[in-house]
Design goal:
Elements lengths: L4 H11 L2 H23 L3 H4 L3
């Protein structure tokens, strides 16, 4: 298994339908929206590592 991220991205692009890709993007955006406040909720010392 020596597949590069580029190969994986191409595979996903070929296999995933546009509608599924949109919902995938929405899920990523939702995760990002949850992740960002979570990092800011951390103490200042650990916040610097992000």
């Amino acid at each position: 298994m020596s597949s590069t991220p580029c190969d994986l991205r191409l595979f996903v692009t070929l296999k995933v339908k546009p509608a599924e890709l949109d919902s995938y993007r929405a899920a990523i955006a939702a995760l990002g929206g949850v992740w960002r406040p979570a990092t800011w909720a951390l103490p200042p010392m650990s916040r610097k590592s992000f």
